[in-house]
Design a protein that fits this description.
single chain, 330 residues, mainly alpha, 2 domains, four-stranded antiparallel β-sheet, 4 strands
């Protein structure tokens, strides 16, 4: 202790405050040792997380390991079985979300520093798989309640939050089958339907009515409903969007519909989607404008909004699913 004291404390201070230094030196050294140990631990955790996200061999083995864990609930029906293939696919999708969101953060930071141009990124066209046959010149929205332009800070915050949430899903979520239907078991043990097709098709008649009225593929309407509300007619978002197709109150007023009425909500949502298609001229930009707001499409920031990126990824897949579902009904 004396040798340590002489090395790190000047002689004049030792002479004046020696007894106090001796008294507190040991706990200070212990605390320093503890901090250093935990610093190394968290550094290793950070390196491991980066490896699972950006190095596919590590990520694949990690996903496979996490997918084989027992669901985080003690009481499941006796006929519940882990759906390993679907769980692995789900967790891999979540890792892609984590990677994409972190890349968005890096690109936005680079753009702020004058490196790169965020408006230069483009999405692959999905128009070929999502035909709209409506005479869109007839579509007009009197009043459009515009969503606010998001700042770069808000987009970075949303990307980081969604990346964290997606990584937690990789760690915790399992998919099991009960009565041959897949359900999702989250980290709190809640059981929710994994496939929402039945919840959406209960509105099939209203969807087909709007599709026939405006000459649009009903699968597009169904896909937007699943992505927006999951088929819940009473859904209200944090931003105040209402109903099956999540219309903002001002937009609903402009469309002249009651957003709480399922038939009017679907009719208004279909018109609003076609209005965005008329404005931007492509299906992918119409989807982005429907979700993020027209201004965020015009300034290119929709490409970095996590919810909208998920929208652009999921809607084409859902369209194909509902094409098959509507074809099977006929």
């Amino acid at each position: 202790m004396a040798d340590t004291l002489s090395r790190i404390v000047p002689k004049r201070i030792r002479r004046k405050h020696g007894k106090y230094i001796k008294k507190y030196l040991y706990p200070v050294k212990t605390a320093a040792r503890w901090v250093f140990r935990w610093r190394v631990f968290w550094l290793l955790v950070f390196i491991f997380i980066c490896a699972t996200v950006w190095y596919p061999p590590v990520g694949d083995r990690f996903v496979d390991f996490m997918a084989r864990r027992d669901p985080p609930v003690n009481e499941l029906p006796a006929n519940a079985r882990l759906d390993l293939k679907t769980t692995i696919a789900y967790k891999k999708e979540k890792l892609v979300i984590v990677r994409t969101n972190l890349e968005n953060v890096a690109l936005l930071a680079g753009s702020a520093l004058g490196i790169g141009d965020i408006a230069g990124r483009k999405l692959a066209s999905i128009s070929a798989t999502m035909p709209v046959t409506s005479s869109i010149e007839k579509i007009y929205v009197v009043q459009d309640e515009k969503k606010p332009d998001l700042t770069a800070f808000e987009i970075v915050k949303d990307n980081l939050y969604d990346a964290f949430k997606a990584y937690m899903d990789v760690l915790a979520v399992q998919i099991v089958t009960i009565d041959d239907k897949p359900v999702l078991v989250d980290d709190e043990g809640r059981i929710v339907p994994y496939d929402k097709t039945d919840k959406i098709l209960r509105w099939a008649r209203l969807i087909e009515d709007a599709a026939n009225k405006y000459g649009v593929d009903p699968a597009i309407i169904a896909a937007i409903i699943e992505q927006e509300s999951g088929g819940n007619p009473d859904a209200v978002s944090r931003a105040g969007a209402i109903g099956l197709m999540q219309l903002m109150p001002g937009t609903a007023r402009g469309l002249g519909v009651d957003p709480y009425d399922p038939a009017q909500n679907i009719d208004g949502g279909t018109r609003y989607f076609l209005y965005q298609y008329k404005t931007f001229g492509s299906i992918e930009l119409a989807c982005a404008a429907y979700n993020a707001g027209p201004n965020n499409v015009r300034n290119g920031r929709y490409l970095y909004i996590p919810e909208t990126r998920g929208y652009m990824t999921n809607v084409p897949k859902l369209v194909e699913k509902y094409r098959e579902a509507f074809a099977a009904k006929q």
